[in-house]
Write a structure and sequence with these properties.
This protein is mainly α and 163 residues long. Helix content is 60%, strand content 11%. The protein has a three-stranded antiparallel β-sheet, covered by helices on one side. It is found in: Cell membrane.
């Protein structure tokens, strides 16, 4: 019975949390609406999302979120420095194909979202087989180093988080 009402419990919790952040005030009406959304949206998407996301380690997920927030802060400073102080001809934009070993759609989405949220990089495409991400970098004088950093800093951690 509980599984039918909450087909994706982590999505329910996330939706409630995000809604309360968006509203930006703690009020009973906002909380009730957040709970209604947290129940209704997973029920509506359940037929299109039949599998359960298996997390090996929710604590590692929290550490990953902290790492990503730190990297976003650092990347903001780096991008500001590039935009403000680099001559245009010294900026080395690059398209980089990043082969990935992740198989879970949620893990692949989280990796693509992480890359896109980090200023200076954006995932523009995922191959049809789901094994390669096409990433555009604002400044990548060494594309191999960027590819390796994505694989070691993000993908390796996501492989430990998702089953």
């Amino acid at each position: 019975m509980i599984r039918r009402l909450f087909p994706h419990p982590w999505l329910t919790v996330t939706l409630i949390f995000v809604w309360m952040l968006l509203v930006n005030k703690l009020a009973l009406g906002s909380l009730v609406f957040a709970v209604l959304l947290g129940i209704a949206i997973p029920l509506l998407v359940a037929p299109y999302w039949p599998g359960q996301t298996q997390l090996k380690s929710p604590l590692r997920l929290a550490a990953y979120v902290g790492l990503v927030i730190w990297d976003i802060i650092k990347a903001n400073l780096t991008v500001a420095k590039i935009v403000l102080f680099y001559p245009t001809e010294k900026i080395r934009s690059a398209w980089i194909a990043v082969p990935i070993e992740l198989t879970s759609p949620e893990a692949i989405s989280m990796l693509a979202g992480t890359i896109t949220l980090t200023p200076g990089t954006v995932v523009t495409d995922v191959s049809a087989c789901g094994r390669v991400l096409l990433v555009h970098c604002l400044h990548a004088p060494d594309p191999d180093a960027v590819r390796e950093e994505i694989k070691t800093r993000y993908e390796a951690r996501l492989k430990r988080i998702f089953a």
